[in-house]
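Example (one chain per record):
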Amino acid sequence: MKIVVVGGGITGLAAAHRAVELARERGSALELTLIESRDRLGGTIVSERVDGFLVEAGPDSFLSEKPWALALCRRLGVEHRLVRTDDRFRKVFVWHGGRLHPLPDGFQLLAPTAMRPFVTSSLFSLPGKLRMALDLVLPRGSADDESLGAFVRRRLGAEALERVAQPLVAGIYTADPDDLSLAATMPRFLEVEKRDRSIILGLRRALKQAPLPGTSGARWSLFVTFGHGMEEMITALAGRLPAGAVVLKQRVSALERAGDRWRVKTAEGGGFDADRVILSGEAHASARLVRYLDPALANLLSEIPYSSAATVSLGYRRADVPHPLDGFGFVVPRVEGKALLAGTFSSVKYPQRAPEGHVLIRGFLGGMLNTAILDEDDAALIGRARAELREALGITAEPVLTRLHRWPASMPQYRVGHLARVDTIERAMAALPGLALAGGAYRGVGIADCVRSGEAAAEQAFATTA
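Predicted structure:
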């Protein structure tokens, strides 16, 4: 069987690797081609070692509670290279009123589960705390899907949304919570409301039943990464593919039916015949390739919006940073009017990210609520990040390392109604046998979700083999 995978990010690599595994398990002959338009594999996963610093240009970790990435690492034989977070510093700060306030212990993304830290927190006003407490008596909602913003306002009030939910969600999805589908992004909270009525009570009950929520057990923390950077995962996957399978610096420009097979053409003049094709790129790129096969499907795909973002990594001498850096980082509510969405204390969160006597801090800019800022040049973005780190952390010294990376149209946005759209897309795909979609645009944006999506596409290819 001939399989062509379009796109060499984590999704495409996971799909290609799973195809190799399935062919080996079944004793099937496989001719595999993975086509990537860039001159490297990995998509947004880029790790750079410079002057003793380990800089992650894109994702710096993956979730262990979603099993697919961890399971892949085990099959690749690289699980021993994973490192966990330093859980002595699990604290997260919220920028409010000109200073960093610790998020109360027990706060589960949207709502508190421990009352004493919540009541004594300096992050919320007394009226805000009382409004959040109303969740204990409010009735259930009736909507199957609503925006995350509407959900938090209804259950917990505007202050909970502005000071916690919005900045935390921006750090994950770079999204506007008033557009973001709760059912598509955080279905757990929808389920808790339906089952327990109160979000606070439901989360507390769940916490009692599972003393270590959100982890894969004692060995791993919620977030895990590789000792030498996330690019280790890309290298391991690429190294398991057949020799000559990867084609770089060719952009797929056309996809045509050829009887019961497919013809994949590139802008550089290449052509590849295939029994199965897996499109693992962004939804708008896949839309371009299917526009003549199914215009309605192409429209559905092209209407999935994407946000853009940038990361600024700054290395400092530890003595030049007055803040104790006793946490993983901070998030910034939109109402504070800052350029930064969030900041990560990278060298605190994970080991070996900075040389002895130094620290590495990474800032995030852009997202759906601040698209215009990415029109500024690199120097301006770096200047903004430094100015706001001065305000938040008291850093006045020059950094010893500066790195900026831009990621245009890189984060799919799951707006209200997203799951219904995906259901329609999947029904349309059923009419195109031998063609599969995979990636973060559909049923999960994280690395583990992308691994699952890519592997499912490979399994679908083999399941439809005559």
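Caption: The two ends are 10 Å apart (CA to CA).
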